[in-house]
Amino acid sequence: MSKLQGDPSLTSAGGVQTPTSLDPADWAQFREAAHRMLDDTIDHIANIRDNPVWRPMPGETRARFAQPLPTKPRDLGCVLDDVRAHIFPYATGNLHPLFMGWVHGAGTPIGMVAELVAAGLNMNCGGRDHVGIEVEKQIVRWMSEALGYPASSSGLFVTGSSMANFLAVTIAKTEALGASVRQSGLRNAEQQLVAYTSSEAHICIAQAMQLSGIGSANLRSIAVDALGRMRPDALCAAIDEDRALGLLPFLVVGTAGTVNTGAIDPLADIATVAGREKIWFHVDGAIGALGMLSSSMRELFSGIEQSASVALDFHKWGHVPYDAGFLLVRDSAAQKRAFAQPAAYLQRSDRGLAAGETWPCDLGPDLSRGFRALKTWMTMESLGTERMGNSIAHTCELARYLSDKIACDPRFEIKAPVALNIVCFGIRGADAEFTRNLVLDLHEQGVAVPSWTTVNGELAVRCAIVNHRTSKADIDTFVNILVDYLA
After folding, report:
1. Which of 12, 204, 482, 484 is 20 to 30 A distant from 298 in Cα terms?
2. What range defines the domain where residue 402 resides?
3. pLDDT (average), residues 442-446
4. Is 211 helix (H, G, I), strand (E, B) or coil?
């Protein structure tokens, strides 16, 4: 027997010699190992309450991921054993019902299966005529319906709302200055562009201004009211002042759920101002926009349907596995004007795989894109938006429940109104160092993961209740943990 024939790594299951193939030599053995890993992953999710919320990595695990480049193959079973020993125990912790530190989705088993299918199909969803593009278009239509946008709207999956907000700034810039700005840049602009958002807006809005070349110095920070919402009167005054200086207001960004406290800007009022001033109205809905799936919460976001674009994250309240950010744009032609590129290798046809007039690569900067739409489609198809909306509303109920329990204990004080699912509170008489140590001690003990933030200049414990697994019993457990810590 030749060396080639005798080396199982060079032979396919059908006996065909394939010395360059990366497929397993023994499909049955691979299937067994893969099924076992799938079972282990399902067990990990099903038994998540039995594990610490988070645990620090030991030196052994850090050393395991500091090894040199592997040049030789290694048995898959050994690799998967490393996953069990060094990956499973030291994940972020956001699957656990007492993870409340940041606005992270908890995922679902449905989404996990979808990721497996998407990885197996390995489709590039940058363009061309295949089912991955149709699935993404389906999500665009669904979200247009959910958010009150016209059926002609366009949309795009991206990594997250930071990228979606950046794309929205880019579209607004192109609309304000004309498509020629894509070639000429900002140097030839007759007026300096200026944009507006609240003082509570996410830092990614300022970053988007930086990345777009406009500069964050040209982003006006608009004052908020006692509830943390942008003040329309302050917005109008800022626009008037900038126009008087000869500047060009081109964008206002409202927030549907601020990252610190969950406050929702008065979107309808902002829409009125933007319409009168003829500037692009974008909504950063990373945290809250999916609340529109709840019939009991929809009124909170009144005015979002009047916006020109919305950024949102399915991987937060939608619990689609990371990453699944999304941008919805009312004027599909505007989105295409900002990003479509003519190129010989992107030519279209009326038939074959090259068919289609508008591909996702015409609507954003990515040519190579994964099949993010599948996990979103499977989640929405399997669960239905009513069930998803009820889950979202329930986390808000739990936030109010936590706030009420905290408010009843004289050792604590609520630091901000609870608008959605975020609760910020302080410990009476405690300084900033004590508050930080409390949060970090809970992390390291593995019992709960809150975070901290600054509200009105004071450090506060912040609990963002996003997880669909969290129950009132978990909130009771968390309060008891706090009480024991202070004892």
Report:
1. 204
2. 390-486
3. 97
4. helix
